[in-house]
């Protein structure tokens, strides 16, 4: 079940977006074109393409922060699948606030829905297999919480949120520490009882050394072809979680899943995703 993020987490992001857009003088166009009276209008968020929705609460807040009199009515929940022409939500209230909040709301909604849509497409490709699709820390600074939320909306799962919620020993850590054994042993000695340790390995020899050292909860199998991944899964033999990563695309993800890994991590879900085409159409 997808649990929405609380407004206390979302509001600072939306507020920052609105302040950036309003700048030093406010909405010059709306102030000039729309009269001082409370002109009440109605508009609908409409999908221009097929996809999965995420970010409705961000859109809601973009109007609420402009004018509390604006009513935002969602027609579905985040994680819902839509077709072209489907109405996602409606807004009704003073025209000035709706016009000034429109772009920020659309930016968040389109971006997060793009992530959810891309995630759902990959999740569908690996559905027959055990592998779960997960994101990485390759997110835009300041937007990690909502980008990872959008991955969940698309049916994916989340990797660690930062440097402080798990130990992930990567290639540079191994180089600076002097190899697999000293790095893992130091990590194990320092880790709290609730902290998992993941070890990135590039070769089967590194994997064997990690298994012999012990204390590794997850092995990140980096840039390994499917045949090598299959052998790595056999070597691990259920003693740890296996994660495939590195250069995996929609064209190759099914072959990776067939190798039997537990997780497939994809950085491009958040760092190069295409936004979903959504419009705000005004209604009589």
UniProtKB/TrEMBL annotation:
Ranges for domain Quinolinate phosphoribosyl transferase N-terminal come to 27-113
**Which Gene Ontology BP annotations are present?**
NAD+ biosynthetic process; quinolinate catabolic process
What pathway is this protein said to act in by its record? Cofactor biosynthesis; NAD(+) biosynthesis; nicotinate D-ribonucleotide from quinolinate: step 1/1
GO cellular component, alphabetical, reads: cytoplasm
Question: Which InterPro entries does this UniProt record tie to the protein?
Answer: Aldolase_TIM (IPR013785), NadC (IPR004393), NadC/ModD (IPR027277), Nicotinate_pribotase-like_C (IPR036068), Quinolinate_PRibosylTase_N_sf (IPR037128), Quinolinate_PRibosylTrfase_C (IPR002638), Quinolinate_PRibosylTrfase_N (IPR022412)
According to the UniProt entry, what is the EC number of this protein? 2.4.2.19
The Swiss-Prot or TrEMBL record annotates one GO molecular function as: nicotinate-nucleotide diphosphorylase (carboxylating) activity
Pfam families, alphabetized: QRPTase_C, QRPTase_N
Q: The organism sits in which domain of life?
A: Bacteria
Q: Does the keyword Transferase apply?
A: yes
Known SUPFAM superfamilies for this protein?
Nicotinate/Quinolinate PRTase C-terminal domain-like, Nicotinate/Quinolinate PRTase N-terminal domain-like
Does the record bear Glycosyltransferase in its keywords? yes
Keyword field: Glycosyltransferase, Pyridine nucleotide biosynthesis, Transferase
Which reaction is recorded as catalysed by this protein?
A: nicotinate beta-D-ribonucleotide + CO2 + diphosphate = quinolinate + 5-phospho-alpha-D-ribose 1-diphosphate + 2 H(+)
Domain Quinolinate phosphoribosyl transferase C-terminal residue range list:
115-281
Task of the protein: Involved in the catabolism of quinolinic acid (QA).
Family from the record: Belongs to the NadC/ModD family.
NCBIfam families, A to Z: nadC (TIGR00078)
How does the record describe its quaternary structure?
A: Hexamer formed by 3 homodimers.
Entry protein name: Probable nicotinate-nucleotide pyrophosphorylase [carboxylating]
